[in-house]
Write a structure and sequence with these properties.
320 residues, alpha/beta, 2 domains, eight-stranded mixed sheet, elongated
C-alpha cells in the first residue's frame, strides 16, 4: 500500500501568493498519486498563523473545491516555528510522512520527488538543502554562512543551508512530540532525533508573489533562539572573559603599585575613562546574555501552550 503524504505549509498574510502556489502543490500531490508513490489520501495542509488578510478565506475556498486540500487555523499569531510544529503535530497520526515547506514558492517543489524516493529507500528524515545561494544578496549570503559556522562553533548540530524544507516520517514526528520546549528551533532539534537521514539538494527561487515575512529583525531573533536554545557556550565565554579581565586588572594594579614605589607616576583621566567605559560595556553585554538565558527559563517554566487551534478543515480521523 502506498504511503500517505501531507504537505505542511505555514501561512501568514499570504493572500497574494497562495492562489498561485496552491495549484502547484496540488499538481505535485496528484502527480505522485498517479505515479503510485503516495496514496490518494494525501493532503496539502495549510496552517493559517493568525493572518490578518484573506488567507484563511482562500484556504476555506480551496478546501471546498478539492478534498486534497486541508486547513488548520490558529487562534492567534504564534510565529513560523510554532505554526509549523502545530501542523506537524496535528497531522502526525493521519499520515505516514510529512513534508514541510514555505508557501511562497521559493522551495523547489520538484525536490519532493527525491524526498519521497529517499523515504521509500528507508530514510526517516530527509533534509532539503540549498545547492547555492544565488538568489540572496551579498549581505544575506555572507551573514547566513557566518551564522551556520558560528552555530557549529557553539556546538549546535545543524545542517548548513537547510531551513525548514524537510520530510519526516510518522516515527520521527512521534519522537519530535517529546520535545515540549516553548522556545522552538526546529533546525536544531530535528538533527538530534537520531533516525536515518538523507539529503536532497535543490536551488531556491525568487518569491512568486507578495513580500517576505522574514525581515532582518525576525532573522536575528531566530539566530538568537538557535544559539541560546542549544548551547551554553556564551555563558562560558563570559566567565572566561571575566577571568581574563580580572587577571589583566591584577597585573595593572601591580604595575601601578610598583610605579608609585619608584616614583614613576603620571596623572591622566583619559586612560581611566577608557578603562571604565570598556569594563562597563563588557558588564552590560554579559548581563544581556545572562538575561537572555533567564528569559528563556522564565518562558519555559510557565508551560503555556505553543499554539491553540481555532479551526480545522478537511482533516480525516487519525490512522489506526
Amino acid at each position: 500500500m502506498a504511503p500517505t503524504l501531507y504537505l505542511v505549509i505555514p501561512c501568514y498574510n499570504e493572500e497574494q501568493v497562495l492562489p498561485v502556489t496552491s495549484k502547484l502543490f496540488l499538481d505535485k500531490i496528484m502527480s505522485l498519486v498517479n505515479a503510485g508513490k503516495i496514496a490518494d489520501t494525501s493532503r496539502v495542509c495549510f496552517i493559517n498563523d493568525g493572518s490578518r488578510d484573506k488567507t484563511m478565506d482562500i484556504i476555506r475556498s480551496l478546501c471546498s473545491e478539492d478534498e486534497h486540500f486541508a486547513g488548520i487555523s490558529l487562534a492567534h499569531n504564534k510565529g513560523h516555528q510554532n505554526a509549523l510544529i502545530c501542523g506537524l503535530m496535528e497531522v502526525s497520526d493521519k499520515c505516514d510522512m510529512t513534508i514541510s515547506m514555505d508557501c511562497d514558492g521559493q522551495d523547489d517543489i520538484n525536490a519532493i520527488d527525491g524526498m519521497v524516493d529517499e523515504y521509500i529507500k528507508g530514510a526517516e528524515i530527509v533534509f532539503g538543502v540549498r545547492s547555492d545561494r544565488k538568489t540572496d544578496t551579498w549581505f544575506k549570503r555572507t551573514t547566513a554562512q557566518s551564522y551556520y559556522k558560528f552555530l557549529r562553533f557553539m556546538g549546535v548540530d545543524i545542517i548548513p543551508d537547510h531551513a525548514d524544507y524537510r520530510l519526516m516520517s510518522s516515527r520521527a514526528l512521534k519522537a519530535l512530540a517529546g520535545y515540549s520546549e516553548v522556545n522552538v528551533f526546529l533546525r536544531g532539534i530535528i538533527p538530534q532525533l537520531g533516525f536515518k537521514t538523507a539529503i536532497v539538494y535543490y536551488s531556491r527561487a525568487e518569491r512568486m508573489a507578495g513580500s517576505t515575512h522574514y525581515p532582518l529583525k525576525k532573522m536575528l531573533s531566530l539566530a538568537v533562539d538557535g544559539i541560546t536554545s542549544f548551547s551554553i557556550k556564551p555563558l562560558r565565554m563570559i566567565t572566561t572573559l571575566g577571568m581574563l579581565i580580572a587577571i589583566l586588572s591584577f597585573i595593572g594594579i601591580i604595575y601601578i603599585i610598583v610605579g608609585a614605589i619608584i616614583g614613576n607616576t603620571a596623572e591622566g583621566w583619559a586612560s581611566t575613562t577608557i578603562l571604565l567605559c570598556f569594563l562597563s560595556g563588557i558588564q552590560m553585554v554579559s548581563l544581556g546574555v545572562i538575561g537572555e538565558y533567564i528569559g528563556k527559563i522564565y518562558m519555559e517554566t510557565k508551560r503555556r501552550p505553543r499554539y491553540i487551534v481555532d479551526e480545522e478543515i478537511n482533516l480525516p480521523e487519525d490512522k489506526e
